[in-house]
Amino acid sequence: MLATPLFVIFNRLELTDTYLGLILADTLALPYAIVLLRPTFAKIPAEFTEAALIDGCSPLRAFTSIVLPLAKPGVATVAVLSFLWGWGDLVFALTLVNDDTKRPVTTGLWAFSTLAMLPPLLIFLLSQRLVVAGVGAGGLKG
Questions:
Q1: ∠ CA(91), CA(109), CA(129), 5° rounding?
Q2: Chain centroid, CA 71 distance in Å
Q3: What is the full DSSP assignment across 2-34?
Q4: What integer best gives the mean pLDDT of the chain?
Q5: Is 95 in contact with 6 (CB distance < 8 Å)?
Q6: What are phi and psi of 65, to 5 degrees?
Q7: What's the CA gap between 17 and 12, in Å, rounded?
Q8: Which of 29, 62, 85, 119 could be a cystine partner for 57, CB 3.0 to 4.6 Å?
Q9: pTM, whole model, 2 decimals?
């Protein structure tokens, strides 16, 4: 659904057969990630971070030690879904890039569809519980 309009736009902007074009096409999952992560982080009370800062933590340490563990289900959900989205961008790579040296690994594995299917399937199966928890947590109003 997106490959044809993207090809027309990228062709006019001379972004076909370029790494930049492929990177831009693959970042389509970014808005979804932002929409899903915003309520996840908004649910975490600011008092936790403030308490960590008062106790002497740097802002980075407060984020990595306090906020990130609390946001783990949402972050795991976005990580898994972004990986699956990126792995599924085979159509973009086949449409936007003709030079084999610039194509991602998914195009090389295309002929081996069973092999190409295994990594995302395994990641999804191993993290299904986190994905369900993250979608449930991110779907609530914050």
A1: 80
A2: 15
A3: -HHHHHHHHHHTT-TTSHHHHHHHHTTHHHHHH
A4: 83
A5: yes
A6: -90, -30
A7: 12
A8: 62
A9: 0.59
Torsion of CA 49, 50, 52, 53, to 10 degrees: 120
List the one residue out of 142, 2, 5, 28 whose CA is nearest residue 81: 28
The pair of structure tokens assigned to 8 is 């027309």
Kindly report the CA angle at 21 between 18 and 13, in degrees rounded to 5?
95
Closest CA to 128 of 71, 84, 68: 84
Q: How far apart are CA 113 and CA 16, in angstroms?
A: 25
CA distance 8 to 62: 45
SS3 (DSSP) at 111: coil
93-134 residue pLDDT tens: 877 888 877 877 777 766 666 677 788 888 888 888 887 777
